[in-house]
Amino acid sequence: MNQLNSNISEGIIRKKIKNWLLTNPKYNPYNFSLNHSIRYATNFLRVLPSVIIIGSSKGGKTSLLSYLNQHNEVQFGTKNAVGTYFFDGSFDNKNFNWYKSNFPTKFSGKKIIGEAPGTYLNHPLVPKRIKQLLPNTKFITIFRNPVERAYSAYNHAVRFGWENSSFEDVIKDEQRRIKIKRENKKMEINNPNYTNFLQFSYLRHGLYAQNLAPWFELFPKKQFLFLSTDELKSNPQQIIDTIFDFLNLKSIKIHPIENKNIGAGGGKYPSMNESTRNLLIDFYRTHNEELFKIIDKKFDWNK
Questions:
Q1: CATH no. of 47-295
Q2: What are phi and psi of 184, to 5 degrees?
Q3: What residue spans define the domains of the chain?
């Protein structure tokens, strides 16, 4: 009944706005979407996210959302994507009303609205931006073994034509850049454009403790839930129950799903060289221990 009322209410609003736009064509040029215009005009009726999955990229968020959205009181993601990327990729060229327009109306009957861009963890300005606009939001981070995450991100880049070098070469180059930045702060780029924190950061996106630091400066740990992709894969029901409890929702029995986005763009990719794997295990060892200490939880990543 709630869903029926929601559909009727939103249908009436859409019809009225559509009629108004048709009688005022100067506000409805062909170069923008009528659907988005309606959503933008009704942003004051829309419910902001109460939870955001901030990371990690290449961490299994698509599968996670497939489980969470089985709950009839939950809606994660927008109409066409897992997230808006507003707080990192669109913050300087979109406004808050645009952000609101991406989410359901208050008539939807959904108790929990969320988004899952998965890249927010990597941008140092995102915590401050969210603190200003959504200070009470809860955060979920699903960590993937950083060695596997780096290799997955690299292969994703190769298949989409963004990367041409070997994995061994790119990680050597990135390690060199990390060392230069650590030893000479003047070499750090202060350009907030999100591409500076997105591209060619196969290793840095796995420095989870470092990337969490600005979040803990602004938000208490009780607003965070930390999980791993290994946990989700081995016991999805238990992990989803943990999330529902974190969100104050009644648990439901979830239906099994196929893994999502495996080798996106062309199936599974070749296995990593064992020598490279061992090198990265050593690289991440101290960073992982720092993460385990600050989140009070440990994952078996030394393999």
A1: 3.40.50.300
A2: -140, 95
A3: 1-41, 47-295
